[in-house]
Amino acid sequence: MKPILSLLLWCWLSVTTMAVTWAIKPKLRCIMYYTGQHPVAPPVQQLKHVTHVAIAFMSPGVFNDPTRVEWPMFTTVEEVRAKFPENTKIMVAIGGWGDTIGFSVAALTDETRKLFAENVAKMVRMTGADGVDIDWEYPGGNGEDYKQVPNSAKAWEIQAYPLLLSEVRSALGLDKIISAAVPGLKRDMLAFTRQTVPLIMRHLDFLNVMTYDLMNRRDSVTKHHTGVQLSLEAVEAYVAAGAAPQELNLGFAFYTKMFRTEHDACVNLADPVGCPTRLLEDPVTGADMGQAGGFSWHDPVPKNLAESFTKALDQGTYDDQQGGYYYWDAEEDIWWTFDTADAIKRKFPLIVDKKRLGGVFAWGLGEDAPVFEHLAALNKGLEERSKSKDEL
Length: 392
What we know:
Helices cover 34% and strands 18% of the residues. It is α/β, with parallel strands linked by helices. Helix 10 (341-353) packs across helix 11 (373-390). Residues 28-385 form the GH18 domain. It is an enzyme of class 3 (hydrolase).
């Protein structure tokens, strides 16, 4: 009889342990980009959930110079570290949206990859950083210069990208953090396939999935630039390609976006989502046609948009189908799309919890100054997860 009781006890303990393990929500990573455009931080008590900071940006081109001995930044790691809670990891973000040529040069050969990686390691040692964030956002094409340099000319980068990351990991060692900012739109995930993602994730601690700018000037109809459904599609694409959900961080945008629309084609639509826009990008050069824009919460509202934006704040609504706050100004033919504090809170159960993601991040911390309302909403989501863990 004793062996049976022991077996039953063991089974009960095993099931109970598994149930508690599944129920507990682990502490999420919370990464803040600290940008040169808005180098502002709130009082440290508002930053207690921040686990990592990425100082943005350092140009990748500086790491291709074999004689380089200085590492230019708009601030220092020490200055940034002093603004955040103890034990916050301070990283240096390398690259950015249009700054890609340095990555292409670095990735070209074994020798160039090695030089780049060794210089990254020197920079980390000299600055005291805890790691780097690789912001080569569009390896393989579809970057800012995609009309000047066709994707076919960059196809080789798809295989070179994980090789470059491998060299950086080898130079930095396992005790330093390496992350990467990666596209949020499927059309831009040229270098993130079932063949490459497993290779990429061998060398990275996590991915910052840019689930914002999901509507941009390459689009021709309105959608939510940081919407729930589009964000889910992005996360699911990386998981399907081989990334573990715990390795993914969901991106939040502390800024607004606006796009001008075609009045006659939109005015009679029952739903402004999917409304045709004006021509946003030059089809030959890829240049901005001046029909789209945006600004952070830190910035003054442009005078020509102030009246429309006030209406967007007062009269906007949340799309329960696609997930996103929006307003279509039928008088001025402007589509507004941005996250409110409420929209941010909704993303925790709808995306972070549903997909069991490992963290969140925001571009960027200072962009939410001086009120830091959206940071507070992010904190609220993180606090509710911590509270549910403590209650178990």
